[in-house]
Amino acid sequence: MEEAFGSPTSIPTLLSRCPASLSPAQARRHTARRRALRASESFSSGTLVALPALPPPLPAPPEGRSRHLLNLVVAARLEVAALAAAAATRAPGGGDAGMDSRLDQETAQWLRWDKNPLTLASVKQLIAAGNTEELQKCFSARMEFGTAGLRAAMGAGISHMNDLTIIQTTQGFCRYLEKQFSDLKQRGVVISFDARAHPASGGSSRRFARLAATTFISQGIPVYLFSDITPTPFVPYTVSHLKLCAGIMITASHNPKQDNGYKVYWDNGAQIISPHDKGISQAIEENLEPWPQAWDDSVLNGSLLLHDPSASINKDYFEDLKKYCFHRAVNKETKVKFVHTSVHGVGHSFVQSAFKAFDFVPPEAVPEQKDPDPEFPTVKYPNPEEGKGVLTLSFALADKIKAKIILANDPDADRLAVAEKQDSGKWKVFSGNELGALLGWWLFTSWKEKNQDHSALQNLYMLSSTVSSKILRAIALKEGFHFEETLTGFKWMGNRAKQLIDQGKNVLFAFEEAIGYMCCPFVLDKDGVSAAVITAELASFLATKNLSLSQQLKAIYVEYGYHITRASYFICHDQETIKQLFENLRNYDGKSNYPKTCGRFEISHIRDLTTGYDDNEPDKKAILPTSKSSQMITFSFANGGVATMRTSGTEPKIKYYLELCAPPGNSDPEQLKKELDELVSAIEEHFFQPQKYNLQPKGE
Length: 700
Hints:
Layout: H1 2-5, H2 10-16, H3 24-45, H4 65-87, H5 101-113, H6 117-128, H7 132-139, E1 150-153, H8 163-180, H9 184-187, E2 189-193, E3 197-198, E4 203-204, H10 205-218, E5 223-225, H11 234-242, E6 246-250, E7 259-265, H12 276-285, E8 306-307, H13 310-321, H14 328-333, E9 338-341, H15 348-357, E10 364-365, H16 392-401, E11 405-409, E12 416-421, E13 427-429, H17 432-450, E14 460-465, H18 471-479, E15 482-486, H19 490-502, E16 506-512, E17 516-518, H20 528-544, H21 549-560, E18 563-571, H22 575-586, E19 597-598, E20 601-608, E21 613-614, E22 632-637, E23 641-647, E24 653-661, H23 669-688, H24 690-693, E25 696-697
Helix pairs in contact: 3-4, 4-5, 8-10, 8-12, 15-20, 17-21
């Protein structure tokens, strides 16, 4: 047997021993061996040969069954060996002499380790076809594990989400947790998943979750694995509620249908931040070879280490949510009608339950989008942040039943978009900043009604990210509570909120402009379920005062100052182009300095959180954490405008956020909007230069 799997010269030696006269079964086995030899020889010469399929197996005679099975194994292993030889052989004359050595090693390793028949077959086909370009896409670089975990398209290879990369990631995460927590085998982890699936590669969120659970249980670590789909915020809630060491959510949130992701929470109930991402990434690299039981998810069956938290967490989450219901009597009697869409995701039943917890009549669900569907058939992008394009069916249903408010969750129900029917008959879709202003005002107003002691304000906090509206800062300055700004993303706000809570502070609210809201600090992440029902209570309460959400938003701006915002993005798939664009801003007009103007607008302050530069600080060093792996520059202007340009951590986008802030009493928002429009045009023309960099605008 060693002879068969050793050096290539052993293959012809083995085949030369075949007798001249063969039975049908022997002939089939001999064909398989010759097929492997031919493939090996063609790979060595640099010529790739397509291999014909073998005929189906013939039954072996009873007396020779064991030898028959042994020969089948030999034939199959010879074929894999030949394919591995292809991956390890450079083809002359193509590109950099064919596949580079690292690609050769990765593909050969993949053939040894992958046991998913669909992804394994796809890699074999690419090798047999000599499709170096597609192999490069699959194996060019391992997915980078960052603070957002992993997110990529599902498919074969180390660049994609699939069974093998899930196993490898979980093995690394498991080993890292073992080093961090001496009581890991007592406390355990929680794992849940959304409804995504990719039949072509056999991947799905449910399967990935089971493989992750298998990895932990094979090491004697308890796993709380949800038996069915849940919203993402249920994972951080479970980590905190059950005092677990970590949580994993298999989801790609609002990304296109082919994507999936692996999102990680630490034992504090918040998303991981550095240095955990680097430690986990290193541990993954050290644990790439699948462990003995890695592929055997039958170990979950009957395991005493496996727990299903679904029933208890569902009950406890909604009991905790009830504490944030301030006007139960109003909710029972409200005449306001609501439409809800989960955009083919997981949110439907959970939002229905949230409404019941607040004594509402449940919202009317958009029937075409109510049930989970990984194809997202009714939308181009399953992201409510895109606005009216995602809400077309919601508008139609709302108009039909005369509903005034639309609530839309993204597919993993951690975000919320809201639209309101205006007196003009048109629909207004609130921006993330506008809804953040409304929810911040509402939660503070409700808190103030229950807390008449003015000294309690000293312990009250609200948070938002650097690219979000500064409206909470304006409210805090006037009302006397604390406001803090963090870097972009709930990983920062969640961890800061936990620090403040541990210090005895009361974190009332946090939000980011990308329609993410933390209305209840028992979840230290954005939560679209709680945000939906709290928005419904706000709308119902305002209706008793004959006010709409839009009218209340205007009242907030009149009292605290208008904050006019604009956010959009350009699409760019070339990382080098993105880097060049930002480097040109740091070396404007060919000089080693930043721009002093943008069109007619004078720049008064620059903060670069990629390089750590801040010209407002005495030592020119930024106070907020910096990251060389992402691009982010903020320009402040003499007219009170602020513009931030940054790259996305999960999508091929360069995003920009602009805001003009006016002091209280300025009642001319139209003039502010006009000036902001001019500033947006100047930023796009002078800083983005879309024609020069071949950038694709949003919506094209």
